[in-house]
Write a structure and sequence with these properties.
about 325 residues; ph1033 like fold; 6-stranded mixed beta sheet; two-stranded antiparallel ribbon; 13 helices; HNH endonuclease
């Protein structure tokens, strides 16, 4: 018979519980009030399922009664990781000064983690969410949900705070067809901010048009087939550059967007579209050659952005 899976339970301890946390560590025990356990079936089920060698994560401060998205941006100053030396029991012997906390588990401290965020490999976003839920339930015990479930719920709440999914995601924007999935990073708030910013920028660029020309190949296409692409990558741009309409061009999803993004083609100082050394020979060379001769987006206002792309992405050496 294989070893029993280890159960991990998260409990939040606020500022007012600091003395109780220190006493619990000193006495190798943690406890809950009667109403915390008996008035909520889920709490009772979690606690009665605990056995020797399970883990208790006591998160100290940093959270509170806050939203899921907000919790994912917070840092928990201290997380005490304890190994249980037995299961749940009831006892009335005084341990803490403010209350009895008769539902108890015996434990030994394994380690103390400091400045814990959602990026911590042992806790993750699911652990942060479990601590947030515990904070909202007066220190009740919570099992971590799956990471995917936590991020989906956080994304849903963050979108609602900005007017809902329809307010941020445009079915006619090819980028938003991809963005309907979970973001590639765990920073939900940053993700939502980027989508709101991108949507405003795209609306200004489109000016109400349903069809627009790709600035690289020149084909006039439905807007759902055309990306609103930053010339100088957004991640490398400062706040002013990110919101500068001159730093944005139309690049179609028929290949132009990828060719430019990865530096297989670039725009020279005169606005002409050129294949880079990355696209010499084979299918890439053919794909680059089918583009227009002159970039429709090029102007004196964005020449520096194209120069950045040339040097940094296409690796063009200029004298």
């Amino acid at each position: 018979m294989g070893e029993r899976d280890i159960t991990e339970v998260y409990v939040y301890v606020g500022e007012k519980g600091t003395a109780n946390l220190r006493r619990g560590i000193e006495r190798s025990v943690w406890g809950w009030k009667l109403d915390t356990v008996e008035d909520k079936k889920a709490h009772h089920e979690v606690l009665t399922s605990l056995k020797k060698d399970d883990r208790l994560y006591l998160g100290h401060e940093g959270l509170g009664r806050i939203s899921r998205p907000e919790a994912q941006t917070r840092t928990v100053p201290e997380v005490v990781v304890a190994r249980l030396t037995g299961g749940l029991y009831q006892h009335g012997t005084p341990v803490w000064d403010d209350d009895v906390y008769p539902y108890r588990v015996p434990l030994v401290i394994e380690e103390t983690l400091h400045d814990v965020t959602k990026e911590h490999p042992r806790v993750g976003p699911e652990g942060i969410e479990a601590l947030r839920r515990s904070a909202c339930a007066q220190g009740g015990p919570y099992l971590p949900e799956s990471r995917e479930s936590v991020m989906e719920q956080a994304l849903k709440e963050a979108l609602q705070e900005h007017g809902g999914e329809k307010a941020l995601l445009d079915p006619e924007d090819p980028a938003d067809q991809i963005m309907r999935d979970l973001p590639p990073v765990l920073d939900i708030s940053a993700y939502v901010h980027v989508r709101a910013e991108q949507k405003k920028l795209r609306a200004k660029k489109l000016k109400g048009r349903t069809e627009v020309p790709c600035d690289l190949c020149g084909q006039v296409l439905p807007k759902r087939l055309v990306h609103t692409a930053h010339i100088k990558r957004r991640s490398k741009s400062d706040h002013q550059e990110r919101s500068d309409l001159s730093n944005v061009m139309f690049a179609c999803t028929l290949g132009c967007d990828s060719l430019f993004e990865h530096g297989f083609v670039y725009v020279d100082a005169g606005g002409r579209i050129r294949p880079s050394s990355k696209a010499q020979g084979g299918a890439l060379s053919t794909a680059a050659q089918r583009l227009g001769e002159h970039c429709l987006a090029f102007s004196t206002k964005n020449a520096d952005y194209f120069a950045w792309h040339r040097r940094t992405i296409a690796a063009v050496e200029e004298s």
